[in-house]
Write a structure and sequence with these properties.
The structure holds 2 protein chains of 2 kinds. By secondary structure, chain A is of the alpha+beta class. Helices cover 15% and strands 36% of the residues of chain A. Chain B has a single domain, classed as Non-ribosomal Peptide Synthetase Peptidyl Carrier Protein, Chain A (Orthogonal Bundle), CATH 1.10.1200.10. By secondary structure, chain B is mostly helical. Helix content of chain B is 53%, strand content 3%. In chain B, strand 1 and strand 2 form a beta hairpin. In chain B, helix 1 packs across helix 2. Classes of the chains: A alpha+beta, B mainly alpha.
Chain lengths: 158, 131
Amino acid sequence: MRWIWIDKFVEFHSGESAVAVKNVTLAEEHLHDHFPGFPVMPECLMLEAMAQTSGILVGEANDFKEKVILAKIKKCVFFDYVKPGDTLKLSAKIESLAPEAASISGRITCAEKLIAEIDLMFSHIDQNLAGKEFPKENFVFTDTFKSLLQGISSVESE
Amino acid sequence: MAMNRDEIFQEVQEVLVDALGVDNDEVTTEATLMGDLGAESIDFLDIVFRLEKAFGIKIPREELFPAESLMNNPGFINNGKLTEAGLTELREKMPHTDLAAFENNPDINKLGDLFTVGAIVNYIDTKLNAA
């Protein structure tokens, strides 16, 4: 994970579900262009936030030993705009977890209002792709993201 | 769970429509997952997950789609074709699929054609009735 697009986890149930938050601010430069005079968060970046939330959830389920790659967007539906000042709540739930892959269902809400429904599939690439070899080190889960989990990893909090 | 083949087919059809983004009428018994319905390798896992949920059963991936493990085993392949040992293995792993046509020319590139909608229905049928 080379860049972080969520602010923190507020709930983390190992192997089951997680909730992260992302605050949206006009200090994010792309909002000035998307769109001039009408800043709204690009949908692709909401998708990225959900991919990070659920990717970490899936990775943690195997102690970050697997290289977890987003493999398929099963569903991605948006219901409303997200504007600067909004706080996104990203809830992800593991639906299936197998040695080779995992599938999750996700919901993004903002102050209880449904913003998006996003279902994703992740591949554990060492277990897939016809035995193709990847670098030994886990280039997906570098240390940069670990602060997100500090004080919350595998701990249930409300 | 007592289901007849028609009910199983309808459920499988729904799974494939959702997983592959195809139309109902494209999902026929003879349709091949890769050739006709455009499935890729990650879709096979998606399909396995969805079938498990839809039918409330556990499906070992290599049981439903054994070709991947065969293709990765050099002992089963010679010059782009499955060897006799490979064919024996395939027959053992895919008892619910008619392999007669494939055995005449066991080209591994044709392995994908073995995965038909009908083969999934056969598999689920066996699985449900054995349980």
